[in-house]
Amino acid sequence: MYTCANCSVHACEREDHGNLPKNCPMNDMVNLEKIRQSYLEPETNRFFLNAALVEAEGYCEWPRLRETIEFCKKMGYKRVGMAFCGGLKNEAKIAADLFRKHGINLITVICKTGGYDKTEVGMTDRHKTRPGEFEPMCNPIAQAELLNGQNTEFNIVLGLCVGHDSLFMKHSNALCTVLVVKDRVLGHNPCAALYTAEFYGRKRLLPPTPVI
Ligand code: SF4
């Protein structure tokens, strides 16, 4: 089991790789060397290097939105898809308009496409956020398949729910990036939960206290 998140050595961030922890993945450099070779496959190599170029060119200058646009331009993409959340319609429109200003017409699909009620895929009415009412289901597989049908070369995720985003990425033929991560409570900034995890936000994050 690897535990990089709890490591205090961080030899991987130095040129000298001495003093590796016992469970460090770098104790098996044969495996890591095989993995390094996969970056040399031409398509992966171009993708990876362009991502690194965007990182360097806009370092601490470009927000992720601009980085995403610049990455698409570097890759020369003509058909970029965006799967967005209905709760972020306005943001999706702003993003699409901005991409257009940069010469890229996004192909966009909302999460509620199909307009099915949640009960049509097995959810019970009492588990809806508003029981007794029509509640359209998110349809990430349709979002992926519709964008696949448009032959998108790259797909952007904007604010899909936890798990729905996973299904979208699983079914997307094109590689995906995430522009917005949904967090209804924290203004779509899940890092705020981490920044406040040790004090102000602690109670919201801990498991419920067991009843004895
Ligand atoms: S790769 Fe090794 S040195 Fe780097 S964080 Fe993980 S355990 Fe620590």
- Total discrete domains: 2
**What's the total helix number?**
8
CATH second-level architecture of the largest domain: 3-Layer(aba) Sandwich
The CATH class of the largest domain is Alpha Beta
Strand-and-helix sequence, N→C? HHHEHEHEHEHH
- From the 3D structure, determine the CATH topology of the largest domain: Rossmann fold
Report the sheet with the most strands, covering strand number, pairing sense and barrel closure.
4 strands, parallel
* Mean pLDDT reading: 97
What general form does the structure show? Answer: globular
- Beta fraction of the residues? 5-15%
Please bin the fraction of helical residues.
Answer: 25-40%
Poorly predicted runs of 5 or more residues: none
The hetero compounds bound to this protein are: iron/sulfur cluster
Distance between the termini: 33 Å
Structural classification: alpha/beta
CATH superfamily heading of the largest domain = Diphthamide synthesis DPH1/DPH2 domain 1
Main traits of this protein?
binds iron/sulfur cluster, alpha/beta, 4-stranded parallel beta sheet, single chain, 8 helices, 212 residues
Tell me what you see in this structure.
There is one protein chain. The protein is an alpha/beta fold and 212 residues long. Strands 2-1-3-4 form a four-stranded parallel β-sheet, with helices on both faces. It is globular and about 60 Å long. The protein folds into two domains: 29-61; 64-181, 3-Layer(aba) Sandwich (Rossmann fold). The chain has eight helices and four strands; from the N terminus they run H-H-H-E-H-E-H-E-H-E-H-H. Bound molecules: iron/sulfur cluster.
